[in-house]
Design brief:
CATH superfamily of one domain: Ribosomal protein L17
Strand content: 5-15%
Shape: elongated
Structural class: mainly alpha
């Protein structure tokens, strides 16, 4: 039997396990925009990610249905079509980058980072001026102190005396 026209790696898995693994890797790349995995898995996932992003650039119902076969999560699908697709609109291909890293410690497996070429700009939360931070912390400590303080309980003697009167 020849191997002509049989593309793709088996990754030591049966077909359903391999498909699920690659679909999950594609989903992770869309969410995180960068993943660390073994080199053969990254190379296989790259093929799918490139195809999915190319479809997402079209942003049609038919394209969305085709991509939905691979990416089964509505939130991830929305990010792909609303954020990632438009980001690569003018790029003719090559949406991912494969960076080889050190081999894994336990089994010496070759590792790689698969990431999108144009990453989103993650903004850091703006820091408040020092004076405002101190005021906010003071309010928090006051609220915490107020919550821990207990109201004085009613004296127990009154209850005992009321109980004695009934007898």
């Amino acid at each position: 039997m020849s191997r002509h026209a049989n593309t793709g790696r088996k990754l030591s898995r049966n077909s359903s396990h391999r498909k699920a693994l690659l679909d999950n890797l594609v989903r992770a790349i869309i969410i995180e925009e960068s993943i660390r995995t073994t080199t053969p898995k990254a190379k296989e996932a790259r093929r799918l990610v490139e195809r999915v992003i190319t479809k997402a650039k079209a942003n049609t119902l038919a394209a969305r249905r085709i991509v939905h076969r691979t990416v089964r999560d509505q939130a991830v699908l929305a990010k792909l079509f609303e954020v990632i697709g438009p980001r690569f609109k003018d790029r003719p291909g090559g949406y991912t980058r494969l960076v080889h890293t050190e081999n894994r410690m336990g089994d010496n497996a070759p590792m790689a980072i698969l990431e999108l070429v144009e990453k989103s700009e993650k903004t850091e939360p703006e820091k408040k001026p020092a004076a405002e931070e101190k005021k906010a912390e003071a309010k928090k400590t006051e609220a915490a102190a107020g919550a821990t303080e207990k109201k004085p309980a009613k004296p127990k003697k009154a209850k005992k005396e009321a109980g004695e009167k009934k007898e």
